[in-house]
Design a protein that fits this description.
By secondary structure, the protein is of the alpha/beta class. It is built from five helices and nine strands. The strands form three sheets. The protein has a five-stranded mixed beta sheet, with helices on both faces. The chain has a two-stranded antiparallel ribbon with strand order 1-7. It has a two-stranded antiparallel ribbon with strand order 4-9. A hairpin with a 2-residue loop joins strand 2 and strand 3. The longest helix has 9 residues. It is globular and about 40 Å long.
């Protein structure tokens, strides 16, 4: 799976006109924001975490990071990221292009409420040189999300 799978999933929902290909890399939040000329918070980063029943995807504003306590209270397991070497096999997209579109079957998607502070967000589209412009509500529908959650904190927050 890759860009083609993500694009096909978006096309099936008539959202293919929102997809953008980039001349440079968008593999990180900073690179994607640079390619788009937007704030890092408007990048919807997709985090692949290992749950007791397999991977889950959590999308959050790019200027946020997982808050371990909030995550554990919400999902009832400690947050542990899928190792980079296993992401493609488990999720269907390689690191830098992980997104909820065209993912492997059975992987639940959750959206962090941090996305709601942006009129539009840009998740990846299956590879490290693409993105798709969606409102948070469109992202929820297009991703087939299970629900909204609050499991992040500012990436600038320091440990106490």
């Amino acid at each position: 799976m890759s860009f083609d799978a993500a694009y096909a999933a978006l096309k099936a929902q008539h959202l293919e006109d929102r997809v953008r290909r980039f001349p440079g890399s968008s593999a990180t939040v900073a690179l994607a924001a640079q390619e788009l000329g937007t704030a890092e918070g408007a990048i919807a980063k997709t985090m692949a975490l290992l749950g007791p029943d397999g991977p889950i995807l959590v999308l959050a504003a790019g200027d946020r990071k997982i808050d371990g306590g909030s995550f554990k209270r919400t999902f009832h397991f400690k947050p542990k990221f899928v190792p980079g070497t296993d992401v493609e096999a488990l999720v269907g997209h390689a690191p830098g292009g992980v997104c909820p579109f065209g993912r492997r079957d059975g992987i639940p998607v959750w959206l962090d409420r941090s996305l709601l502070s942006h009129a539009e967000v840009w998740p990846a589209c299956g590879d490290d040189a693409s993105g798709v412009r969606l409102t948070p509500e469109e992202l929820y529908r297009a991703a087939g999300a299970v629900g909204w959650c609050e499991v992040t904190k500012s990436a600038l927050a320091k440990a106490a």
